[in-house]
Design goal:
α5 crosses α10. Helices cover 44% and strands 23% of the residues. Strands 3-2-1-4-5-7-6 form a 7-stranded mixed beta sheet. The relative contact order is 0.17. The two termini are 29 Å apart. The chain is globular. The protein is α/β, with parallel strands linked by helices. It binds S-adenosylmethionine. S-adenosylmethionine binds next to α1 and α2.
């Protein structure tokens, strides 16, 4: 399978991750660089957090945004009113573009959902011209995402299924230190640099944190959706307890670290 991402509903995705990827997008652009009049490819655009940030950062000649999921292609298309932006359904591992068609290609929070992430990086390199830039960011689920670790650690303590969820969650592709850098180098990129980007996820309440997960969105939501009602209620109560941590329900703020990598094409 070329995408392991679970998407049901664009509004739930926005509450789960889109609102945070909007904060991360400018940090990835600053790290990767951008110049006037360039043609840019946004791989795995989702609802368009990075696409919109790119459009606002420079006077680009074109931004092509692709996603595997028809739900996201429709949502990104519905939100877009910029004539420079073209959105289409495509697979990161088989990009429908000529060699060297773009000045830069970006993938924000995508490669950890691609089983053969090396193939996606090879494709991102192929479609960028000589001397252009390939850049990507993925969350550090194991060590840099305490808000989501809180959930998977809690359900891991409740059942074997929860332990298996945690095992999968912590070791998705490209998340280990140096893993993305190694992949970029293996795929022939030059001057490869890996760094960390940090944002905070600020929730108003437990419901604000839990609603998209409880609605079945994303990988953690998919796990919750297949629990029976008793297990589900037990999981929600235990995660609520971890969120509240002995204080009344209300705002909580979590730091979140993404690995980011960039390289130059030959
Ligand atoms: C966490 S979302 C990130 C979306 C967007 N880049 C953002 O930051 O909000 C992951 C996205 O990667 C897309 N995706 C996963 N595998 C893909 C593939 N093989 N080709 C294209 N898109 C893929 C999913 O459909 C989903 O939209």
């Amino acid at each position: 399978m070329t995408s392991t991402f679970n998407v049901l509903n664009a509004a739930a995705y926005e509450q789960l991750m889109g609102r945070w990827s909007k904060k991360l997008a400018p940090l990835l652009i600053d790290f990767a660089g951008l110049a006037e009049r360039e043609r840019i490819l946004d791989v795995g655009c989702g609802a368009g957090s990075l696409t919109v940030a790119l459009a606002g950062k420079a006077d680009l000649s074109e931004i092509v945004a692709i996603d595997y999921s028809s739900v996201f292609v429709e949502e990104a298309t519905r939100r877009n009113n910029d004539p420079r932006v073209k959105i289409l359904q495509a697979d990161a591992c088989d990009l429908p573009f000529e060699d060297g068609a773009f000045d830069r290609s970006f993938a924000l929070l995508v490669l950890h959902f691609v089983a053969d992430a090396g193939k996606a990086v090879a494709e991102m390199r192929r479609v960028v011209r000589h001397g252009g830039v390939v850049a990507a960011a993925v969350w550090d689920h194991f060590g840099g995402m305490p808000g989501m670790r809180m959930m998977v650690d809690t359900v891991a303590a409740l059942s074997e299924g929860g332990r298996q969820l945690r095992n999968r969650f912590c070791f998705q592709p490209m998340m280990q230190p140096g893993e993305m850098k190694r992949t970029f180098v293996e795929q022939g990129l030059l001057e490869v640099t890996e760094t960390e980007l940090m944002i905070r996820m600020d929730y108003q309440s437990f419901d604000d944190y839990w609603a998209p997960i409880g609605a079945g969105e994303g990988p953690l939501g998919k796990y919750v959706a297949q629990l029976d009602p008793t297990e589900r209620s037990r999981a929600e109560t235990a995660v609520r307890d971890a969120y509240e941590a002995g204080r009344p329900d209300g705002p909580r703020s979590f730091a979140n670290v993404a690995w980011a990598c960039r390289g130059i094409t030959t």
